[in-house]
C-alpha cells in the first residue's frame, strides 16, 4: 500500500518507516499536517494515512477531519490516529474527528501490521462499492450519474474553469440491430463502441441504452470535432461477423462548447440538439452546435 506518515519526530519517522518498509509498503513521510493533506488530496494512490496528534501547521485531529471529508466525497482512504497517550479521551476524540483506527505510539510491529491488514480489507470493500456505484456494468465506462459528477470535477480541476466541449453520440439504427440479430449482439455493439470511446482523453460515459457522451478539454478550437470525427471513422470501420453476414456499425455525433458559468445539463442539451440534426441529415456524421444558435436553443 501507499502510506502517508505524519510524524513530527525525525526518529519516529525513521522507526515507523522501517516498520512499514518491512511490510513492503511505500511510505511518504511528513512532519507538517497541511503539507501531508495537500499531498494526499493530489495523489489518489495514497491508501492509508497514519498521523500523530501533534503535527506542525495542521494538527492530527484537524487532518483526520479533512481526510474524513475527502473519504465522504468518494475517495477510499483509511486514517489511523497515533498518540503516546492511550487515554480514553484521546481515542474518543480521534474517532469523533474521523479517524478509522487508533494506535499507541510507538506502535508494536505485530499490532501495526494487524491493523494495516484490517485497513486493506476495508479499502478493498470500499473500492468494490465505489466501482459498482460509478461504473456501467456492460461497458466498463462511467454510468450516467458518475459521468455527470466526473465531468463537473474535470471542468473545475485545479480551481479554474477549463475550456471544455461535450460530444454526444449514439448507434445508428440500433433498434434494427436488436430486432435482426438479438439483444446479445446489441450488447456486443454497445461494448464495441465503448471500447473506442474509452481510448480518448476526457470523461466518457454511457448515458443509457446506446447513447454515449464524452467531455474533452478544448485545447484549441475544433479539437472536439476532430475527436468526434476520429471516433466516427473508427466505428464505421468496425465489422462484426454474424451468421447472416457482416454487421456494419455507424454512429451520429453532436458537439457543443461548454460555455462559462454553465452546468453540464446545459451543454449536453445543445450537444443533443446537434446530434438530432446529425440524425436528420442522414446519420453517420458529426454536427457542431454553432455559438450563433445558443440564443435560439435557450429560447426553445
Order of helices and strands: EHEHEHEHEHHEHHEEHEEEHEH
The structural domain count equals: 2
Q: What's the tally of helices?
A: 11
Which shape, going by the Cα principal axes?
elongated
Report the β-strand fraction as a percent range.
15-25%
The termini sit apart by 53 Å
CATH class type of the largest domain: Alpha Beta
Which percent range fits the helix content?
40-55%
Structure summarized in a few sentences:
With 300 residues, the chain is an alpha/beta fold. The chain has helices at 10-23, 33-42, 60-72, 88-96, 109-134, 144-155, 174-181, 183-197, 223-236, 264-280, 294-299; strands spanning 2-6, 26-30, 48-52, 78-83, 101-104, 164-171, 203-208, 211-217, 239-242, 245-248, 251-258, 286-288.
Keywords:
elongated, 48% helix, disordered C terminus, Alpha-Beta Plaits, 300 residues, alpha/beta, five-stranded mixed sheet, 11 helices, five-stranded parallel sheet, Rossmann fold
Topology summary:
Blueprint: E1 2-6, H1 10-23, E2 26-30, H2 33-42, E3 48-52, H3 60-72, E4 78-83, H4 88-96, E5 101-104, H5 109-134, H6 144-155, E6 164-171, H7 174-181, H8 183-197, E7 203-208, E8 211-217, H9 223-236, E9 239-242, E10 245-248, E11 251-258, H10 264-280, E12 286-288, H11 294-299
What would you say this structure looks like, in words?
The protein has 300 residues and is an alpha/beta fold. It folds into 2 domains: 2-133, Response regulator (Rossmann fold); 144-299, Alpha-Beta Plaits (2-Layer Sandwich), CATH 3.30.70.270. The protein has helices at 10-23, 33-42, 60-72, 88-96, 109-134, 144-155, 174-181, 183-197, 223-236, 264-280, 294-299; strands at residues 2-6, 26-30, 48-52, 78-83, 101-104, 164-171, 203-208, 211-217, 239-242, 245-248, 251-258, 286-288. The protein has a 5-stranded parallel beta sheet, with helices on both faces. A 5-stranded mixed beta sheet has the order 7-8-6-11-12, with helices on both faces. The radius of gyration is 25 Å and the shape is elongated. The relative contact order is 0.09.
Amino acid at each position: 500500500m501507499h502510506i502517508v506518515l505524519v510524524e513530527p519526530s525525525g526518529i519516529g519517522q525513521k522507526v515507523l518507516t522501517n516498520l512499514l518498509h518491512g511490510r513492503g509498503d511505500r511510505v511518504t513521510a511528513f512532519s507538517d499536517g497541511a503539507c501531508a493533506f495537500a499531498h494526499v488530496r493530489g495523489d489518489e494512490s495514497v491508501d492509508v494515512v497514519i498521523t500523530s496528534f501533534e503535527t506542525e501547521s495542521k494538527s492530527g485531529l484537524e487532518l483526520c477531519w479533512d481526510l474524513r471529508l475527502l473519504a465522504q466525497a468518494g475517495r477510499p482512504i483509511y486514517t489511523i490516529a497515533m498518540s503516546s497517550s492511550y487515554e480514553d479521551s484521546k481515542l474518543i476524540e480521534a474517532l469523533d474527528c474521523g479517524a478509522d483506527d487508533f494506535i499507541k505510539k510507538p506502535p508494536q510491529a505485530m499490532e501495526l501490521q494487524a491493523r494495516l491488514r484490517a485497513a486493506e480489507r476495508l479499502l478493498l470493500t470500499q473500492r468494490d462499492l465505489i466501482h459498482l456505484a460509478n461504473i456501467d456494468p456492460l461497458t466498463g465506462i462511467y454510468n450516467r450519474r458518475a459521468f455527470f459528477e466526473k465531468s463537473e470535477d474535470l471542468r473545475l480541476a485545479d480551481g479554474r474553469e477549463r475550456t471544455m466541449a461535450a460530444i454526444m453520440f449514439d448507434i445508428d439504427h440500433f433498434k434494427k440491430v436488436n430486432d435482426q440479430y438479438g439483444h446479445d449482439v446489441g450488447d456486443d455493439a454497445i461494448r464495441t463502441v465503448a471500447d473506442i470511446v474509452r481510448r480518448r482523453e476526457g470523461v466518457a460515459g454511457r448515458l443509457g441504452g446506446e447513447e454515449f457522451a464524452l467531455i474533452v478539454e478544448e485545447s484549441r478550437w475544433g479539437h472536439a470535432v476532430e475527436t468526434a470525427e476520429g471516433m466516427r471513422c473508427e466505428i464505421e470501420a468496425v465489422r462484426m461477423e454474424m451468421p447472416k453476414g457482416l454487421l456494419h456499425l455507424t454512429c451520429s455525433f453532436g458537439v457543443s462548447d461548454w460555455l462559462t458559468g454553465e452546468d453540464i445539463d446545459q451543454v449536453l442539451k445543445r450537444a443533443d440538439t446537434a446530434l438530432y440534426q446529425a440524425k436528420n441529415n442522414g446519420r453517420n456524421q458529426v454536427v457542431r452546435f454553432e455559438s450563433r444558435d445558443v440564443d435560439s436553443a435557450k429560447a426553445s
